[in-house]
Amino acid sequence: xxxxxxxxxxxxxxxxxxGTLVDKLFQPDGDRTxxxxxxxxxxxxxxxxxxxxxxxxxxxxAGLGPVFGPILGALYGPSALIWIVVGTxxxxxxxxxxxxxxxxxxxxxxxxxxxxxxxxxGFKQFMRLFSLILLLLVGVVFVLGPAKLLxxxxxxEVSLWVGAIxxxxxxxxxxxxxKIIGRLYPFFGAILMFMAIAMPVALMTQGYEMxxxxxxxxxxxxxxxxxxxxxxxxxxxAISGFHSTQSPLMSRCVCSEREGxxxxxxxxxxxGFIGLVWxxxxxxxxxxxxxxxxxxxxxGPANVVSEACTTLLGGFGGVLAILGVVVLPITSGDTxxxxxxxxxxxxxxxxxxxxxxxxxxxxxxxxxxxIISLANFxxxxxxxxxxxxxxxxxxxxxxxxYCIKRGKNHWIATVPAVFMTAVTNTYLCNATIGFxxxxxxxxxxxxxxxxVALALFLYVFRPTNIAKMAPDNA
Length: 474
Known about the structure:
- This protein is mainly α.
- It has a single domain (2-466), classed as Amino acid/polyamine transporter I (Up-down Bundle), CATH 1.20.1740.
- It has helices at residues 2-26, 35-38, 50-61, 65-73, 79-105, 111-119, 121-154, 158-174, 181-205, 226-233, 242-251, 260-284, 289-348, 355-373, 377-405, 411-430, 439-460, 463-466.
- The protein starts with a helix and ends in an 8-residue tail after the last helix.
């Protein structure tokens, strides 16, 4: 368990050091009027306190990714813990901070518009469609995942839980943000905190040790390659493009730019901690990668959650811990559909103040979401994994462009952007959902494509070109 505590300490230290560096680079302006203060509409632009926004942001971004992803990542061994820490601080935290703060600077606009201001209109139009597809995939994945957990816990048919969750998502999508989300999330947050603290404490007090030792070798029982699969699999526990679709929801509620580090970078660090918890559960509760893989084969990550929670915490504690996992996807699925509604309304310049206008967008969205939910869950999850990390790479390139145009140190975003570009392109070339090429071919293509992307970026944003670019008032 020592490595778990060392990794947790690294996250805390990283927040106060690297997080502060990122914040100082951006230079938040406490005197600048935020969208929540000058565009308040009582529906989406609603001023809220910093602690409440932090909690909502954490629950928005922490879906199944920081639970299911790290459990699957645990099959690779302790290397997964290293990636969670490094990825959270150097990639995920930077991604989440800039997606939130740039939206704040651009009047709370959705991520396609933020991308468009910095990378051009072509990227903006592509991002509108790409983000909408990702949000629908997320919404559906985060219906099916918790429905299966609740079905296993209660014995009630999964289809009934799917219907109940869809109803909740619909209400959370159309009602003002402070009516359901703002009121239920503190309760959800309390359950989440119980789960996040109780699980590692139970592992420690009951004498569980990490398998088999602190090797960084690939321990996957099926010998699946660590590169690039581990970086796609863990996803939200280290970096997730989905977060950039959620940050604008909270940028519309922030009262001061100086709250950005705590809300956006801090929520990612908190999610990284949740990822550490579940990767550690996967490596400690089961005594070998083979044992963990057997549990996964018997019922997927949901089976691991159920077995670990009920065994470590008993009946009542186990139920609370499982509910702590359930609230994560539910509190991301509801805002996924809400973000999709806002994305469409921003594109159409269609006011959302009147309830009937929200229904005109929400009803077709949920019809499409229901149709997607009839597809195979595993296939949806694989497409989500690739699309999620691809979006993360694009948003990091956006942050790089913003910085370089203002003479700031862009490498703080460019380095993770290059890395994630290589990861996603290698995965797309190798995966069966992609081109199904051998890894010996996929890796060179992925790496070369990332280097080419960097060269094009530096060429497009060379000083002579930057001088000709129109200011965006951010």
